[in-house]
Model the fold of this input.
Amino acid sequence: MPTTLDVLAIAAHRDDVEQTCGGTLLKMAQRGHRTGILDLTRGEMGTRGTAQDRAREAAEAAKILGASWREALDIPDGRVENTWENRLKVARVIRQQRPRVVILPYWKGRHPDHYIASLLGYEACFLAGLAKLDCSAAVPAAVGASASTAPLRAGCPQDSRQDAGATNVAVHRPFKIIYATLYYDIRPTFVVDITDQFEGRLQSIMAYKSQFTDQEAGKNIFPAAANIRSRVEAMARFFGMLAGVTYAEPFLQKEVGLVDDLLTIPVKSI
Ligand SMILES: [Zn+2]
Done:
């Protein structure tokens, strides 16, 4: 039986997870849960750095966050589309990694890759649970995979050379899907206290040196390195204040909260 994940965070770009829910992932890892990160793209369209820089930095950031698993799919950066083929690629990862909880980006945002990743991720979670759906032929290319990785052949007979091990990947649907809302101005339905994880999360963001060190390229889009800490801190403090803690990360769940004992409901009212 392969080891499975407790929590899988899915996002469009390497560094999205660090910026939106890195503290939460670190906290879960510190509690002994197995966490993973699936980046849909490899960052080849980024204003700064190359996809190779990004792969190295993503591995470093994953280590800082204590993640047990991280991969990037080969969906083109800047062109995340909710196609059948892309849904199968993500569904296959969900069947392989079998997370109980999936963290997706919120479904509205400035960058189309972010909000499309949200719907794509949700629909992939649904498809992964369909007993009669064979998604084994969609071959996700792992980080570092050669350019000759098998082309997508969804629905085609399986080629055992290119798809070794996929035959036993059983149907799986995550129990819970939550949405990381930090990129969008919406009131979260809950926040996670990351007071003890804040420094680690900041380090995981700063691991993307090609992005966040001062340079000429993208000078008008990226904050100066000296400002990053205060920006990240301001957001974390704001969401922390909503719940009476120092630092927090915001999430939204579509479902209602279930309460068993009124005396244990957290967050002071008055
Ligand atoms: Zn992004």
Summary: Residues 11 and 17 are 6 Å apart (CA to CA). Residues 12-13, 16, 111, 114 surround zinc ion (CB under 6 Å). Residues 225-243 form the longest helix (19 residues). The longest strand covers residues 7-11.
